[in-house]
Design a protein that fits this description.
This protein is mainly β. Helix content is 14%, strand content 43%. The protein has 3 helices and 10 strands; from the N terminus they run ββαββββββαββα. A 3-stranded antiparallel sheet has the order 5-10-7. Strands 6-9-8 form a 3-stranded antiparallel sheet.
């Protein structure tokens, strides 16, 4: 299972399908939408991630709580749920938003160390600025 927009490309023997979030509230308010991507079959799959990819091998019943935007994918054997955390104060001052994904093993879970917005902000200091006169286009 992959979060929306995570799939890039796969070998021909890999099947791509859709699955639906387990809970309507999580789908609407968790920021991930109703549909997730289901990838099955034998072969190599490339996914879009930001930062480092981290693999977690969960034992039966083992829990992993992850900021929702950092979850990339999980095996079908993993149970998942998206829950709100804290209140408004946590959302504004905690830096993680209102939702966390709880994953319960057994199975593999893949997370990313950065979100796209955090990666973009980290790159800004290294991008050319309009007042740089040494930039040549073409």
């Amino acid at each position: 299972m992959l979060q929306k927009d995570a799939f890039l490309v796969a070998e021909g023997a890999v099947d791509l399908d859709i699955a639906f979030q387990q809970k309507l509230g999580a789908a609407l308010f968790g920021g991930q939408g109703l549909i997730i991507q289901k990838v099955t079959g034998e072969g190599t799959v490339f996914v879009s991630v930001c930062g480092d990819l981290v693999e977690h091998n969960l034992a039966p019943g083992q829990l992993l709580k992850v900021a929702t935007a950092h979850v990339v994918g999980w095996e079908a054997s993993v149970q998942y749920d998206i829950q709100s955390i804290g209140g408004i104060k946590t959302a504004f001052f905690g830096g993680e938003g209102l939702f966390v994904t709880t994953l319960r093993g057994p199975g593999k879970v893949v997370t990313q160390s950065m979100t796209l917005s955090k990666l973009a902000n980290a790159l800004i200091p290294f991008l050319p600025h309009s007042n740089d006169h040494n930039i040549r286009v073409g």
